[in-house]
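Q: Could you fold this chain for me?
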Amino acid sequence: MSMDRQDGARFDGRVVIVGASLAGLRAAEALRAQGFKGQLTLIGDEPYPPYDRPPLSKTVLSGWLPVSHTYLPQLQDINAEWLLGVAATGLNLQEHVVELADGRRIPFDRLLITTGTRARPWPDAAQMALDGVFSIRTLDDGQRLREVLATKPERVLVIGAGFTGSEVASVCRELGLNVTVAERSAAPLAGALGGAAGMVAARFQRAHGVDLRCNVTVLALEGDANGHLSRVHLSDGDVLDVKVAVVALGAVRNVEWLLSSGLAVSARGVACDGSCRAFDANGIVLDDIFVAGDVARWPHPLYDGQLLAVEHWGNAVEQAEAAAHNMLCSPAERKPHRPLPTFWSNQFGLNIKAVGLPTVADQVVVTQGSVERKRFVAAYGRKDAWWRPWRSTCRARWASIHR
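A: Sure. Below is the predicted structure, expressed as structure tokens.
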């Protein structure tokens, strides 16, 4: 079957999307919206239809939104075959087949990989398995942790003060719970917003009653004779009596099923070009394999072609739509994926929004408002790029939320 059609409406091959979450759903909708009439299959390892993950560490934990209200709306009928609750375990490039955990082999003409990420687990599996130890990434995670927080535990330990950990800590304080946050860096959010902004975040967290421990590592989680979490050991020598701990150590990209596929894959993600076409292990671009969302690494022209992996909601949507377009069109009609990364977070009465990548900067200046009033805009930049600020700067906006 020829795949080099000029008009996407006439493309009648089989498209398989592995990863039935935000990026996968939006790509499927974009394919149909652009006239794709062929067979469409979505594969997902969870038994649920696509749902929205950001609320899980915010409104779901607070009880304001039930997990049943996190399912993503389908903007149009995608007329797809859904294979849910079964993981992809392999990809055969020569035979154009996706291999599933139940033994099925799903053929494709074009493939889109949107397998995203999962929560990074606690390094000791036995300690992670203790009753009372949670991660927060899936719908089931959100439901279980919400039920435990509703019982009003005496204290909650949050391990990691990135966006997810900080949001969980914020919800705990909203619920009136005592919360200790252990962060091995010098400040919360430092990995995402830099050290200066992290110090501001630390001030806000402590002002809201968080027992914030920076430059501190959790050495061990200890259970009682019944397998329940009972105490934790910290690197500063403290031993805390805790029955609930939330592990928020970042994310792991879901690439294991692709390690022997012949694609350019590493723990950092699946490498692709600016049009979302995957590279093979020899650096050759493939016209029938595409990548989008958290699992993708692509060269961004505004950052000197550096391969970026952006784990944010907006990027998943935009990259999925770009991939869908490029799967259907002729080579001359391909569009590059090059939007500025944007992200946001609600925590401790603040709305934090950022455009660009603060982590590439080496200086930050407050350009509007004031930190003391909790409403300000900060600009990030690099000293060695003064002549091309459009490539190196970003803006972050912090504003208090009035409810």
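A (continued): The chain has three domains: 8-118+252-329, 121-249, 342-400.
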